[in-house]
Hints:
The structure holds two protein chains of two kinds. Chain A has one domain (22-297): ABC transporter involved in vitamin B12 uptake, BtuC (Orthogonal Bundle), CATH 1.10.3470. Chain A is built from 14 helices and two strands. Chain A has helices spanning 2-20, 24-50, 57-73, 78-100, 107-126, 135-140, 143-165, 168-178, 180-185, 190-215, 227-240, 247-266, 269-284, 288-299, and strands at residues 131-132, 218-219. Chain B has two domains: 1-82 and 159-239, P-loop containing nucleotide triphosphate hydrolases (Rossmann fold), CATH 3.40.50; 89-157, no CATH class. Chain B contains eleven helices and ten strands. In chain B, the strands form two sheets. In chain B, strands 6-7-8-3-9-10 form a six-stranded mixed β-sheet, sandwiched between helices. Chain B has a four-stranded antiparallel β-sheet with strand order 2-1-4-5, covered by helices on one side. In chain B, helix 3 (98-105) packs parallel to helix 7 (142-154). The radius of gyration of chain B is 17 Å and the shape is globular.
Amino acid sequence: MRGAAAAALALGLLAAVPVLTGRSAVLNWLFLVLLHAGIAQSWNLLAGFGGQVNLGHAAFFGLGAVVARILWLDGAAVPWALFAGVAAAGAAGLLIGAPSLRLRGAYFAIGTLALAEILRITFANAMPEVSALSAAQLGDYALAPRYYLALLLAAGTTTVAWGFSASRFGLGLAAIREDEDVAAAIGIPTFRQKLLALLASTVFAGLAGGVFAYYHLSFYPSFAFSPIWTFDALIITFLGGVGTVWGPVVGAAFFILVREALALRLAELHLLIFGVLFVLVVVAFPGGLMQAGAALGRRLGAPARPAQRPQQG
Amino acid sequence: MNGAPVLELRDLQVAYGDQRVVWGVSLEVRDGEVVAVIGPNGAGKTTTLLATAGLLRPLAGQVTFLGARIDGLPPHTIVDRGLALVPEGRRLFGAMTVRENLLLGGYPARARRDRAATLAEVMDLFPVLAARAHQRAGTLSGGEQQMLAIGRALMARPRLLLLDEPSLGLAPRLVRRVFELVREIAARGVTVVVVEQNAFQALEHADRAYVLSGGRVAASGPARELLARDEIRRTYVGL
């Protein structure tokens, strides 16, 4: 209950930010954190909870972005444009997952990676022009609605992650992650579970893409399919704590903070720094910042968690 | 021991890729029986079991469970019909607690409604699991892990329990204990098929047995009779 209360408080504070401050720098920064929390959490739903590594998350982010962008600029209402993007991403997820999630091993990882690259190259050729807002749309542009959408995205994905962590479905996913053969042997419908988790993951990736498309004044459509979206999601999740409810959120705040600070001075060098940081975290704290925080809490003598379970025998 | 047939394999053939391992196994298990499947390494015992449980797809032949064909069905559907497997080497979810492992065993729809009652029954059968409910499964001793693996399978409320090498890596005293539990489970109305390398213990506790060799049934009959046959004792039991 304490966790739920803290989450509600954080949500309330975040919802109040646009009312409290008119500074676009603050809103932009928080928008980026929420967007990245959303895309990382959507990746975490399948990879963290179910152990299925999607190396082409950018495919679903990109589809959500491009479909929503085209419809929106074409005059569709924003909710409809976002919905269409979400549907496209979810459909693509089912299409790639239906054959590849039946197989064990690297098929799913390679299949998703290939899908994202094929889409990126296709869109670079088919839509080489930059997608920019019209003068009228620029005149109407306001940051607050974009911010609230990103908040909805982050809260929605994290709620689903919490649902996974506290449900029978999520326990089944954890069993698949630990030992898929045994999960199948004891009666868990492994394929169906993986496909449902993939659907949740890709639908939210599509929504994240739509939020991105609604936010940016201009971008090249192929950029929405860049591997950067996959690997940012992956790095953020591992930094924060893979397979945890709050890891991607904590990871996103840390990631954006460091990235923005470094990018000001070091330009592209921040990629190298994140690479090194990623390796260090995986080696020292496989559980990410969530684990590091808990360890620090214990070191300081503060009960980071309510009393440990009693150990018998 | 002459109930209705629960499981029937007819001319089952199984291959791993191009490597055929089971060349035509036929066997029958009747309601309430404890049936042992023994034989040397590589005889096709585990493969037969995995194909029965739907984890391997047979090349040819039929698997009939409670009067209906189940070969080709996905494993979770087979578990849902009442056939549960205890895999070789326990294969527990080591990072999860004893209780979580048991709850996962109660995942199938057939078991969900009575899950609390089944959990109480399993804890009653294995008091050691009740005592260690919140301990991580990976920290249990070998014998306790085997109890948990069996308990997890029982959580599915099976009609038929398939046990793959339950004595593997256990001290002789614990092997005896595991087989006593197998009899106890059978007495509670669950039919049992047990695949074993420890042929002596298996034959001592089973009603009937099949001897597999080279992917075929080499001999079959009441366990006591097989145990008394000289060539079986020499070849498989090592007495």
